[in-house]
Amino acid sequence: MADEAADGDAGFSALPLPPDQVGLLEGLTTTRAIRRYRDLPVGPAALQAILFAATRAPSGSNRQPFRFVVLTDGPNAERAKALLGEQARRLWAAKETTDSYESGSGATPDSPKSRLARSMRSFVENFERVPVVIFPCLLRYRAPNPTEGASVYPACQNILLAARALGYGGVMTGWQHGVEAELRELLGLPDEVFLAATITLGVPVGNHGPVRRRPMGELVFEERWGEPAPWALDPPGTDHTSAGPPSPGGRRKG
């Protein structure tokens, strides 16, 4: 992890970027959603590097409308984490029932569905203890439109990848929905600011590793929709998942 040496009473100093622990392609293909964290802080040096990476993200016309509110252990952090924790537990309880996480493959202890459920339960039950909460925001300069997320969500991915590079982990959620009014008042967000996501960061319990997705041939087309590209072949040893979006009839594809 990044060197956490502090300057004490001398204040903070600009630091060079710390060395990566992983290469770019390895980081891109092994950055998992990390929901369980050790009771360890993410220090200023690491936050400086992670948020620097976030601010290097692309945006439309390079206007850089992204902004980030970072909470660690201050009074606003304590209140925000309490609000988010209550909302996270409500939303997960509803999803656990709606998506039948305790039946079917969810009843098999080692199934991906069961493992995800355990991870989510731990996440929401211990939300108030997450070391860092980051609120990525979009400073709107025009009316909302379907493409505006392209100027904030790449920065969110940069946060997660930079955290991975330094030995940390995180996950992006939508837990702010339902308590946004309270969060906006607490954090002093102007009306023109869109609260885009809730990202948590910390030292992982467990490890990153290869992520499982559908085979490339199901996702990458050439020349025409639905025509798999002949070169869209996964590297040897790639593990896959059949998870996918719900079909029009309400059942999950695959």
Structural notes for this entry:
This protein has 254 residues and is of the alpha+beta class. The protein has 2 domains: 20-210, 3-Layer(aba) Sandwich (NADH Oxidase); 212-254, no CATH class. The chain is built from 6 helices and 5 strands. It has helices at 24-30, 44-55, 75-98, 112-125, 153-165, 180-187, and strands at 66-71, 132-139, 169-173, 193-195, 198-202. Strands 1, 2, 3, 4 and 5 form a 5-stranded antiparallel beta sheet that branches. It is globular and about 55 Å long. The chain starts with 23 loop residues before the first helix and ends in a 52-residue tail after the last strand. The model is unreliable at 5-10 and 250-254 (pLDDT under 50).
Observed structural traits:
NADH Oxidase; 6 helices
Q: What radius of gyration results from the CA coordinates?
A: 20 Å
Provide the helix percentage.
25-40%
Return residue spans where pLDDT drops below 50 for at least 5 consecutive residues: 5-10, 250-254
Major β-sheet annotation: 5 strands, antiparallel
